[in-house]
What does this fold into?
Amino acid sequence: MDITHLDIAVVGAGYAGAAAAKALSDLGANVTVYEQARRIREVGAGIGLRPSSMHQFNTRGSGEAVKAVSSPSDAFEILTADCHRIAIEEWPEKDAYGETTRFIHRGDFIDALVGVLPEGMVRLGHKLERIEDKGGEATLHFAHGESVTADLVVGADGIRSVVREQLFSDRQPVFAGEHAYRAVIDAAGTHGMVADGNLRMYIGRGSKVYLLPLLHRGQVSFDITALHTDGTWAPAVTKEDILRTVEGFDERIVEMTRNLDMDTVNVRAVYDIDPVDVWHSASVVLIGDAAHAMCHHQGQGANSAVLDAGALADALAAAESVEQALAAFQAQRKPITDELQRISRNGWTEDEVNDVFPGQKPGQIGATTATTTED
It folds into this structure.
């Protein structure tokens, strides 16, 4: 199939959308990205990019941009709340790809991905209101009145995807019974706990604390994930609320929490989605969180989005038709992401849940959908 004649509309300029736009435009397709925000920004903290993701960037011309704003890491360590080691292991895939895991701030990551796209490819202020699947093409209708028809629409519009809800599944995101509190703090305030560049996770009563070093910035991404029954998408919490989640942890972690600037803390309830049976039609396909949003316990959300983008481009390059390519893409990626969704939901042992909520399961208590608007 000659992809150079395809008009492709990508909905969403996040990790999945930006990576897909780069891969597809490199094949010669006419790609336009439609993003609802009026400026592209990512709040929150840091993420880890696995060797397979870095391999994708290297082969598709984004590797140097990503490496310039990230730090390498050798290993991942799990410890008790009082800093006794449970396990340590090197990041997998290193030998297969000749790369190691790299840590990057979410904002720097999206800037790097969008920064390598041709000027004018991303169109901001386009909030998708409705999509019409017409078989061999699809039409997007935006809130400000504009409509666009494309040979292929790539739905990369996140966990609350309009494309998914209107065409593939109207099942809403599922509350995981957890809150995530994230901030980026000065490395000097972490007492050298991650000076070697490795990720550490501390497990305590109902909480997990992640220290992810961003050494190139002189910072550390500080993430507390705690069991909670409040499924409000962006819950209101105080510093005292967060301090209670780290009671009994190493005093250095308690001090980091005590010193948090609440204006910089990103507070979110944790949600994922149930597996979606079908990701595509003849002219529309879901990728990234729109297809398989998952809890963050395995650190695979962004990596899965990147690998989706590469697999979609490869499928289109190899197939005889768009529909055939989309079927091949789903056949390759869905079994992998179904399993990642499953294991990412297993963030807590039964003993941990019962210890904090005897006789209850927060994910069941709060098995609701988000009712507030995400920023």
